[in-house]
Amino acid sequence: MSETSSAATATPPNTAAPGTTVAVTGAEGFIGSHLVEALVATGHRVRAMVQYNSFSSFGWLETLPNDVMAHVEVVLGDVRDPGSVGGLLRGTEAVYHLAALIAIPYSYRAPHSYVETNVTGTLNVLEAVRHLEIPRLVHTSTSEIYGTAQTVPITEDHPVNTQSPYAASKAGGDRLADSYHAGFGTPVVTLRPFNTFGPRQSMRAVIPTVIGQVAAGQTTITLGDLRPTRDFTFVKDTAAAFLAVGTAPAADVVGRTFNAGTGGEISVGDLVALVGKLMDTPLDVREDAQRVRPADAEVMRLVCDASRLRAATGWAPAHTLEGGLEHTIAFFRDPANLARYKTDLYNV
Predict the structure, then answer these.
(1) Which end of the chain is more exposed for a tag (fewer CB within 10 A), N or C?
(2) Which part of the chain is the NAD(P)-binding domain (predicted)?
(3) What is the DSSP letter of 321?
């Protein structure tokens, strides 16, 4: 996102102080539910959008303690509907926009749905923030927009190289956020997390795939390519990064994009070996062809430079990779949690 804006004629006020009401889209999901917890823990009231479903399921929010949910208003809706978004945001002091379709393999099967949610949904949020004059919007990007690293570590100035429909749709949302800040002075800040992991993550991601299979008693693990390297950030640290950019003085963050990651790097193969060690289980890893991305689509290397975020807000990860993995392993070893997953199926 551009660092300056000629159209932003006034500095937006600081926002989202404890006690204020904030909105979270995608609140029922993996990162969203952890962010809701973090917001409540810091004294906020949360209006949480959960995608409408006929089961009245609140997703992972249903697992949060009653003393947390006492400060949460769940709103069933859909970011693809402008009226739904407007109703959610009215009367809030900040918006954390996390709602998205995120599974990379599925984006090849259903690319239109990714555009509708990740681009049009983001447009609806931007329009509502603009017309309702919400003081702060935190827009969620992804490290996938960079594609395979051309230089490391990856700064926010790294070229955009979208290698999947998912990445392209997220880049489209980013560009809309840029344009609304430049053209309307909309108080947007973009957070670009690298690979987040932890309790509640879906089996579409590599860490829960490995841990879930081992927790279910399997020692032969099926995966895709073991060569790519990633910068894995524990989910509580990612939630803290959202809070950091959502509550920092406007002059320090509005109109800017921030990477959030550890600066560490590990290959999928070495990650599997580490999980096996921590779970005290020798693993036999086998490649599953349906899990392998097309040759030109695989992002081979991602490693984060988060120095801009650290300088602006003081944020730094508080968890090591091993520490985060231990928390995640404990979560999946709880039979009640493991029962929520289908560890024997490939989750796209």
Answers:
(1) C
(2) 24-327
(3) H
> Residue 20: exposed, middle, or buried by beta-carbon count in 10 A (0-12, 13-18, 19+)?
middle
- The upper half-sphere exposure of residue 105, i.e. CA atoms within 13 Å in the direction of its Cβ, equals 13
In angstroms, the CA 63 to CA 116 distance is 29
Concatenated DSSP letters of 61-76? GGGS-HHHHTTEEEEE
To 10 degrees, the CA torsion angle through 19, 20, 26, 31?
-40
CA distance 104 to 93: 32
Beta strands 94-97 and 21-25 are parallel
**pLDDT score of 299:** 87
CATH superfamily of 206-229+264-301+319-338: UDP-galactose 4-epimerase, domain 1 (3.90.25.10)
Give the model confidence (pLDDT) of 183-205 as tens digits.
999 999 999 999 999 999 999 89
Lookup: tokens for 176? 């809309």
Cα separation, 329 vs 343, in Å, equals 14
Q: Where are the beta strands (DSSP E) in the chain?
A: 21-25, 45-51, 72-77, 94-97, 137-140, 188-193, 195-197, 220-223, 229-230, 232-234, 257-260, 266-267, 284-287
**CB–CB of 288/105 below 8 Å?**
no
Mean pLDDT across 249-271? 97
Q: In 3-state terms, the chain is what percent helix, strand and coil (to 5)?
A: 40, 15, 40
Q: Which residues pair with 24 in a beta bridge?
A: 48, 96
